[in-house]
Design the sequence.
């Protein structure tokens, strides 16, 4: 096993003027010269971990802005007053604050979802993230959407 001297690149062994630190899962922190640092960033798919999530957030905001319909804070408050808990609480393990979840996700443009109160349900963070881009029937099985809409029906006019 070879040991590195102070200021030596962990990869090529050279002694550059400046070393960069790169934390790699499983390997710990490496001290690399500029050339090795650039190569290591490409190999560890740094772009996917840092840039793509920001791009995904931009496209979600664009879908939300392009979706027809909207709802007010008063409508959301009325929905919470009528149904104060997670809309899919029968699943158990509710966790986190309530989100404004979409019954039919905005990402499912082929289903023509709306961003109005009729397509909104209070749902906990865990269940909202678990639903992802699936409709309620795809996520929980046939009849789940009808069950949620019936429970919320009196409060959101569906």
Sequence:
């Amino acid at each position: 096993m070879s040991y590195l001297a102070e200021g030596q690149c962990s990869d090529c062994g050279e002694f550059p003027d400046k070393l960069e630190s790169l934390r790699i899962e499983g390997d710990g922190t490496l001290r690399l010269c500029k050339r090795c640092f650039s190569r290591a960033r490409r190999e560890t798919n740094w772009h996917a971990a840092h840039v793509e999530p920001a791009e995904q957030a931009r496209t979600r905001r664009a879908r939300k802005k392009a979706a027809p319909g909207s709802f007010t804070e008063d409508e959301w408050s009325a929905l919470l007053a009528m149904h104060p808990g997670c809309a899919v609480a029968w699943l158990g393990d509710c966790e986190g604050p309530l989100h404004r979840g979409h019954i039919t996700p905005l990402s499912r443009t082929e289903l023509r979802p709306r961003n109005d109160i009729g397509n909104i349900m209070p749902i906990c963070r865990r269940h909202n993230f678990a639903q992802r881009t699936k409709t309620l029937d795809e996520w929980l099985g046939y009849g789940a959407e009808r069950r949620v809409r019936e429970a919320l029906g009196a409060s959101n006019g569906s």
Summary: The CA atoms of residues 29 and 60 lie 34 Å apart. The beta strands are 20-24, 28-32, 98-102, 120-124. Residues 1-50 form one domain. The mean pLDDT is 80.
